[in-house]
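Handout for the seminar on molecular recognition.
Each group receives one record of this type.
Step one: identify the two inputs.
Step two: read the structure output and locate the region that could contact pyridoxal-5'-phosphate.
Step three: write two sentences on what you found, then compare them with the reference statements printed after the record.
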Amino acid sequence: MSALVRNYNRRKIAFKKGKGSFLYSTDGKKYLDFVQGIAVNSLGHANPYLIKAMNKQAKKVWHVSNAFVIPEGERLAKRLTQKTFADYVVFQNSGAEATEAAIKAARRYFYSIGKTKKNRILCIKNSFHGRTLATIFASGSKKMTEGFGPKVPGFDHFDFADHKGLKKAITKNTAAIMCETAMGESGIKVIPEWCLKGIRKICNEKKILLILDEVQCGIGRSGKFLAFEYAKIRPDIVPIAKGIGGGFPIGAVLMNKKVASAMTPGSHGSTFGGNPLAMSVGNAVLDQIFKKGFLKNVELNSKYFISGLKKIKYDYPKIIKEVRGIGLLLGIQLYKDQNKFIKKLEENKLLTIRAGENVVRILPPLNVKKNEIDLAIKIFRKVCNQLN
Ligand SMILES: Cc1ncc(COP(=O)(O)O)c(C=O)c1O
């Protein structure tokens, strides 16, 4: 019997190795892995370049402490600022930690300018920002917060796409609007460009901060390095994680100069965040993602994949309600509960994962090959046919 806490509904499948887009199970089966650790393995399994970078650093120094200068982290931070809106970066270990640090930074900014009551964060109802106490209450989800009271105060909510509700929910104590640029867990719901522009405009008018959670949709997943780049806006704070480590736990918060100025020595910290081993892997991930044509290829593969999925939707209109997504953060929304569909895909050796609103979430590695997309499409069609 497993000694692990039962907080997961695990599938009865274990893997002995992975390579690129594929996973090999302990019982000898080969799966096309379009979960990739839930958008984490941006460069697939056992990527030789990442292995080399990690091994090289492992022989030098793994961990020191943020009490010292960490050149690998200096380099990663510099590269992130050169490619984004950010002026400064702070490293964490996970997405929830990064999101929570983003909330802290927003509050600390208003504290630093003497507006101590301006500390409320306005979020989308039923969004996902992690599993720490603050981030579950930020999500506004009944399911995630159940039994974890007392409620962490300081969060207000509006419904997805409810523009009037958003405006109404802003009070004089609102410090920031925080949302995922493309909502992953809640059902692959992409905030349209014009909407992001509108939110930025509201933030400017109300003199509040914009936090865009790019933990899942960032680091090339959308086809841009950060998904909001499509809207040509500049947020104030952006938590990232998942893809930046390619499977190694890394979180980070990108922020502009104004916000960063409030994060003075002692205001925040982490034992592991930004250690040399993690930073070396992060730099190796960026070496690949920043390669000429890499992101363009994500966009091209996205278009190819979406058009393939739309053809299946056309042929099976009673099974598939909608094809959703951006870049390689894709989903098909079904009319019925998606568990049976996901199980069937698994039986046909394609791994996917659920998201809200009956969505089957599809997360190939960013360097997925066209023939692997073809294979996935073939399996989707077969399963639709089996369930028709
Ligand atoms: C948008 C978003 N924010 C935060 C998190 C939390 O990240 P982690 O599980 O690394 O704590 C996730 C995880 O799925 C996420 O998708």
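Reference statements: The chain has two domains: 15-46+292-387, 49-289. The CA atoms of residues 158 and 165 lie 6 Å apart.
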